[in-house]
Amino acid sequence: MQWLQAVVFTAWGVAVSRAELLAFVLALWMVHCNLRVNPLGWPLAIASSALYALLFAGSRLYGEALLQLVFIAAALWGWWQWLRGTQNDGHALQVRDLGRRGLLRLSLATLAAWPLVGWLLDSATDSDVPYADAFTTVASLAGQWLLGRKYVQNWPTWLAVNVASVALFAYKGLWLTVLLYALFAVLSAVGWRRWARLARQRTLASA
What is the pLDDT of residues 51-91, one digit of tens each? Predict the structure, then answer.
């Protein structure tokens, strides 16, 4: 723990720990793999999430810290889905579109869960940003499910999460993580375009 918490450099007057730096590198590598539909992204997500859980708990972002533990479990599930999961037609998972009805259901569930999680964080913790923390927590869970099932809509979901996270982490002074999530926002747009193209190609091929 002391090795992970050791300061390696200072960015904008704020100390950056070895844990934050390692999480930064692993998270970027993870997104690189996700863009290419490479299952290696899942074990990288597990390692990065474990480091971020420690980092966020130390910054009193309890929703984000708990979310990282959920991410670890979800990454194990997503890893299995990408290796062994099937679609409704019994074929192996392919990059595809969720559809309007599915997107509406997921959006309504996310919007309903947001104030509930915010209230829980406000009531049960000393978080000073409970509802902002709750939004990124709930929307990230939606994004993780979409990614695990290879739906194109995971990328616009992550785009919204990443933009909100930039503001949240800037408020907390986690500047290296701010940079990471700003990069994530750009990569989310790239991933959205790339996966949408893959989904169209597979639709045309099966027509």
Answer: 988 888 877 777 778 878 988 999 999 999 999 989 888 88
Residue 141 has pLDDT above 70, yes or no: yes
> DSSP for 22-81?
HHHHHHHHHHHHHHTT-TTHHHHHHHHHHHHHHHHHHTT-HHHHHHHHHHHHHHHHHHHH
Distance CA 101, CA 136 (A): 23
Q: Kindly list the distances between the CA atom of residue 168 and the CA atoms of 17, 49, 130, 154, 199, in Å, as whole numbers in the listed order.
A: 19, 17, 11, 21, 33
Helix axes 62-84, 130-148, angle to 10 degrees: 0
Q: Residue 26 in contact with residue 53, Cβ under 8 Å?
A: no
- Max CA distance (Å), the chain: 57
Q: What's this model's pTM, rounded to 2 decimal places? A: 0.86
Q: Is the pLDDT of residue 142 over 70?
A: yes
Q: Would you say 145 and 78 are in contact if contact means Cβ atoms under 8 Å apart? A: no
How large is the average pLDDT for residues 6-19? 71
User: What pLDDT is stored for residue 4 in this prediction?
Assistant: 66
What are the E-state strand segments in the chain? Answer: 7-11, 14-17
Give CA–CA dist 82/19, Å, rounded: 28
Instruction: Say how many C-beta atoms besides its own lie within 10 A of residue 72's C-beta.
Output: 17
